[in-house]
Amino acid sequence: MVDLSQIVKAYDVRGVVPDQWDERLAELFGAAFVRVTGADAIVVGHDMRPSSPGLSRAFARGAAALGVDVTEIGLCSTDQLYFASGDLDLPGAMFTASHNPAQYNGIKMCRAGAAPIGQDTGLSEIRALVEEWAETGAPEPAAAAGGITQRETLTDYAAYLRNLVDLTSIRPLKVVVDAGNGMGGHTVPTVFEGLPLELVPMYFELDGTFPNHEANPLDPANIVDLQKRVREEGADLGLAFDGDADRCFVVDERGEPVSPSAITALVAARELAKAGGKGTIIHNLITSWSVPEVVRENGGTPVRTRVGHSFIKQEMAATGAIFGGEHSAHYYFKDFWNADTGMLAALHVLAALGGQEGSLSDLVAQYDRYTGSGEINSTVADQAGRAAAVKAAYEGREGLALDELDGLTVSAEDWWFNLRASNTEPLLRLNVEARDTATMERVRDEVLALVRA
Question: 18: cis peptide before it, omega within 30°?
Answer without folding.
Answer: yes
